[in-house]
Amino acid sequence: MDGAPSYPKLRAHAESLPHLKHLLEDAARTDALTFEQGGILLDFSRQNATAETLPLLLDLARERGLESSIKSMFSGEHINETEGRAVLHVALRAPRDATIFDQGANVVPEVWSVLDKIRAFSGKVRDGSWKGVTGKTLTHVVAIGIGGSYLGPAFVHMALENEPEASEAASGRELTFLANVDPVDCVNALKGADPETTLAVIVSKTFTTAETMRNARTVRAWFKSKLGEASIAKHMVAVSTNLKGVEEFGIDPENAFGFWDWVGGRFSVSSAVGALPLSLQYGFDVFESFLKGMRDIDGHFASAPLEKNIPVLMGLFNVWNATFLKLGTCAVLPYAQALSKFPAHVQQLSMESNGKGVDMAGNPLSYEAGEIDFGEAGTNGQHSFYQLVHQGRIVPAEFIGVLKSQADVFLSEEGSSSHEELLCNFFAQPDALALGTTTDNPHRNFEGNRPSLSMLLPVLNAFTVGQLLALYEHRVAVSGFIWGINSFDQWGVELGKVLAGKVRSELVRCRAEGGEVGHSFNHSTRKMLARYLEASKGVERVGLGRL
Ligand code: F6P
């Protein structure tokens, strides 16, 4: 990226920016930095940007070949070079008659054959024609998966739980998630669950992830102990690209729902990963509306000119903040309780994608790339970390508001509705950050000039949640294309997994042989492991514990 002609210009430009309180006096500037797509309004006027900034960023985008990168992604080129794979999550929400190719084969019919299978299966479970082994309807779904096989579906579930149409469709049903290998998470996910009415969905792209497979075996043991071996065929199904692994686990391939290696885990919400648990809970029609929302943004992303393309603009300002203004964090702040799990999803989506130290060719990056994403639903965040955001470090913020609540309250004695009270904060915070205020007391000073993006959704329903998710998926890809990194691999998670395996073998060996922890571990780890082995002496090592 630093070889691009606009790169030194952007570097120099970043040194001479006026305070946001002056920039915001210019109404024409605000209008020029406000965009709308599919009912979603995005206001970039509180970015540290003058009239020169966006044109320079667009120059950078063109010099970096952004348009061709986007085209390559949509056309199934193997842009995930380190894994030799296409990146085609957009095919997961393409209409039935679309054609998108991977290695010469149109993938859309396969996508729809899985969606049709999910529509049929979820319909049977929901209407009671698919029954448990004792003849009861399965009303509780436990989705077992971690990372991309958990965070996305969990955030969407929370977003729809109180949406009137979705919540009516989910009446009498329950969806819980089991992600952490901590057995306490098993206790939570199965709390109050009746095995006779529970269906477990194992969600794992690889079907080898240690945490998920351990939890799947635990839940399988739970079913067997309560309902016998025959229950597995009726109470456990799977979502995976590894259908052989699913069969070896003991699940009938008929009850497996596939997807493909061209779907990255963190980009898999629109595959069977999200489709199966969410259709079981809300019905396929609600899930299809979510897909249509994603499709709305995909179409815009693929065709809108760069200067009006909202995920492109989000990605470019992300690069502006992280690389040129050297602001290495981003707070994702939904002013909607229903979106309170969204920041956790963005964390994986963004940080697993763009947390890289080398470019596509393997050369170390000579500029800052990737940012630390975090967040919390407003107003809870205000009473937590906003102190630092207002007076401590400068943290670019992304405020997400919703015009109409899923469940507003109007008290006659209050001048405003409860949702309006929430929105007052949504409207106030970006100005508090941007404008600041000066007093005689340095402790009470707010220097302002802190950048943010404000995004307004008309309502929060399956369609708009789909739009929101697609916007963030593409913002992450755009930033990665500009930085010249591979946003679609995740080698950084491997080393820890290998070391955990080594620790596991050593613990088993020490316990079997009664020996000391070997010297292949350093002194610190040996001391910790010895302490653990000592503490676990005499613990009964059999059974399902509190399950
Ligand atoms: O954390 C690494 C990772 O591979 C993620 O990319 C992925 O979302 C998660 O593990 C779960 O993987 P799987 O779906 O294969 O179980």
Shape: globular
Mean pLDDT: 97
What gap, in angstroms, lies between the N and C termini? 53 Å
Main beta sheet = 6 strands, mixed
> What count of helical segments does DSSP give?
21
Strand order of the largest sheet: 1-2-13-12-10-11
Which helices and strands appear, and what pairs or packs with what?
Elements: H1 6-13, H2 20-23, H3 27-32, E1 34-37, E2 40-43, H4 53-63, H5 66-74, E3 101-102, E4 105-106, H6 108-127, E5 140-144, H7 151-160, H8 164-169, E6 174-178, H9 183-190, E7 198-203, H10 210-227, H11 232-235, E8 236-240, H12 243-249, E9 256-258, H13 272-282, H14 284-303, H15 310-324, E10 329-334, H16 342-354, E11 372-375, H17 386-391, E12 397-402, H18 418-435, E13 452-457, H19 462-483, H20 494-513, H21 523-535
Helix pairs in contact: 1-4, 6-13, 7-13, 7-16, 13-14, 14-19, 15-19, 16-19
The site of 6-O-phosphono-beta-D-fructofuranose has 14 residues, from loops.
Structure description:
- The relative contact order is 0.13.
- The chain is α/β, with parallel strands linked by helices and 547 residues long.
- Helix content is 46%, strand content 11%.
- The strands form three sheets. Strands 1-2-13-12-10-11 form a six-stranded mixed sheet, sandwiched between helices. It has a five-stranded parallel sheet with strand order 6-5-7-8-9, sandwiched between helices. It has a two-stranded antiparallel sheet with strand order 3-4.
- The protein contains 21 helices and 13 strands.
- The chain is globular, with a radius of gyration of 25 Å.
- It starts with 5 loop residues before the first helix and ends in a 12-residue tail after the last helix.
- 6-O-phosphono-beta-D-fructofuranose is lined by residues 146-149, 204-206, 209, 212, 265-266, 352, 490, 493.
